[in-house]
Every structure is written in C-alpha cells, then in structure tokens.
Amino acid sequence: MMYRRSFIKKSSLLAGGVLLQNTLASAIQLSSNPIKIAVIGCGDRGTGLIKVMQTLPDFFKINAICDVLDFRLNNAKKLLLDGSYIAYEDYKKLMNSKDVDAVIISVTLSNHFEIAKAALLAGKHIYLEKTMTYDIPQALELVKLKENYPKQILQVGHQYRYTPLYFKVKEMIQKGYLGKITHVDCRWDRNSTWRRALPSSYLERAVNWRMYKEYSGGLAAELLSHQMDFINWVFDTRPKEIIATGGVDFYKDGRETFDNVQVLFRYEKENMIGTFGSTLANAHDGYLFKIKGTKGMVSLLINDGVYYPEKETVKELLTVDGVTGATKIEWNTDGGIPIDADKSKDGSWHSLKDFHNCIVGRKEPTSNVKTGATTAFCVHLANEAMYNNTIQYWKPEFDV
C-alpha cells in the first residue's frame, strides 16, 4: 500500500526539490572562455534566445548574427550594444568564420535542414529550433549525416525536456504515481490571426511563412510538437496510428495551413491515446496538458502543475500506518496538490545552459538528432493525415 509518508518522502516529488538529470546539474565546470556563437534567424524566436544568452555571459559570446531580412537584423543589433559581432545576410559566409564555434538556427522551418547540414559540414555545434526538419526525408538524412560528425553537438529546441516542472512530472509517471495511463489530452489555443505586420507587402511569404505549406508545418509543428515530444520522451514511445482533421475555419485571408486542428495518436505499446488540438479562434483554454492515469491525473500549464489523485489514492494519501495527521499535504481549492518545482528560469534558459554543458562535457543532449527526428516524424504524419484525409501509420524505418 502506498502510504502518505512514503508518497511524500520517497522521492520528494510533490514537495521540495526536484531530481534533475545530469545535464541540468551544475557539475560540469565552465570552460575558460564562453562559447563563441552565432544566431541565424533573428525573428521573434532568435531575438528571444539572444536575450536569454545575455543572462548567461559566462556561457556564450554572440559573435555573429544572420538574417535575410534587413529589419530583423536591425532589431537584433539593437540588443547587441557592444558592437563586437558581425552581421551577415548569407549564412554560408558565416559558416567560414573561425570566430564562430556554434550556431543557433531559428529560421523558417523549410530551411532548417539545409542550414543544419551546412553547419555540420563546417564543424559547428548546432542548437536547432523545433521542429527539427520540415519533413520525414530530411529528418532521416540529418540523422544519417550526424553519424559522420560524432564530436559535434546537435541539440533540438524541445525545451520541455529541460524544464524542472516537466522533469518532475516525468519522474512521477515513471515511479507510478499516476498508475496506468490511458489518455493524454493536449491543447494549445490562441485567439490570434498568427499574422505578423509587414514592412512591405512583397514580404508576405517571408514574414508570414507559418501560413504557407511550402515553408511551414502549421500548428502541429509550431505548437503541438512540444507536447508530442514530451510524450515521446517520458514513455520512450511513438504512435502506431495517426488520425487527424482540420481546416481554415475562421481566417479567410489566403492562408494555407489550418487555423483549427485536431490530432489523435494511438500508442499501441502503451495502450494509450494522445489527443492534440489547437485553434486560433479562441484563447480561453490556452495551454492545457492533462495526463490521466488510474491513480491520478496531472494537469500542466507551461509553468504550473497540479496532481489530482483519484478517490482511492486520496485515501492512501490520508493514511500513515493507520494514523492520520502526519506530514501535511497542501491542497488547492479544487482538490489538487500543486507540484513544486523551480520556476525561476524558463525552459529556454535551461536548454541553452545544457547546450553549453554538452559542448564542454562532450555529452549527448537529452533532445538530440534522433529524438528530434522522432518528433519530426510525428508532426509530418499528423499533417499528412489532416491535409489528405488519410490514416497514417508508423513505419519501421522511423525507429532511428
């Protein structure tokens, strides 16, 4: 029987510290000099990562920035006040720089593969934003190519693998606190056109690339891939069967990628279903991530989590060797137990710190080319199912 005392004290999962993976620990010593890094793609994500790295001056020195759009380069320059960097419009020229040891690639999804390939060939370490590649063939080729460059680090930007809250939930699942999990319910909703303002109309596809199939994996790639990747990681799994639907149901503005999608994954090995939904026409639910098991459910937001035990589990929680009144459990107003985890830094901070540590310590990232490929396969299959009205199936060659 899982008594209250052992539930609380056994792993300190609901109260107190979190047992972080080795890459999150600070055991690795800083190198004598910060890693010389370049940011390729200076849109919202690229400039956001610049700001994060500026809080880690002992880890990174930004020696170069690159973007094909002048106004984005200028936005990045405003953040780099010391002027000790070179601005490029052509990433190929940047690859020849001896003052760059690593690159962050935060460009249009359709360009991820070609730039990552160029960086590997140039001997650079790579932080490649999610989703890793635009399609399955590119992911398979990148996995194969990376085998030829074992000393170079390639980390994929699925930062939930580095967030203390999500790592704690992973521990809870693996230690059985949720029981047998049969359903994972994921949403990421917004009330937004997802359209960026244009300095000139001819830049429509360059700026609003997420709306066009030629460049984008749509909502599945940009939002839902985070939750798909977390499930792949926690359960070491992949979906057997993929069903999906969607449409341009609200924004009749010429976009091609759907503004309303629903995806269903059947995980045959785990006897589990995962549902993933996103709409751009209502923001009430926002981000939701519910993991449902026979002993309890975890409800996650981006930075908060609550454990909701089932009735029988509550009885166990309230019993210590038949005596009530030992270690106090903090309950919220709707019968849940808040999950305590360090929230002082976000996932981007933790993942970039780990990128540094993997380079210095010559360690494989938790989010690497193979795990990134697995999630890229999931996204591609989901899009194939929803755009072609077909059921997709996992193939043996996807087990990289």
From TrEMBL:
UniProt keyword Lipid biosynthesis, yes or no: no
**Which parts of the sequence belong to the Gfo/Idh/MocA-like oxidoreductase N-terminal domain?**
35-158
Signal peptide stretch = 1-27
UniProt KW Signal keyword: yes
**Pfam families per record:** GFO_IDH_MocA (PF01408), GFO_IDH_MocA_C3 (PF22725)
Q: Which SUPFAM superfamilies match?
A: Glyceraldehyde-3-phosphate dehydrogenase-like, C-terminal domain, NAD(P)-binding Rossmann-fold domains
At the top level, the lineage of the source is Bacteria
Residues annotated as domain GFO/IDH/MocA-like oxidoreductase = 168-298
Keyword terms of this UniProt record: Signal
* Protein name, entry field: Gfo/Idh/MocA family protein
Which source organism does the UniProt entry give? Pedobacter alpinus
Give the taxonomic lineage as stored in the record. Bacteria, Pseudomonadati, Bacteroidota, Sphingobacteriia, Sphingobacteriales
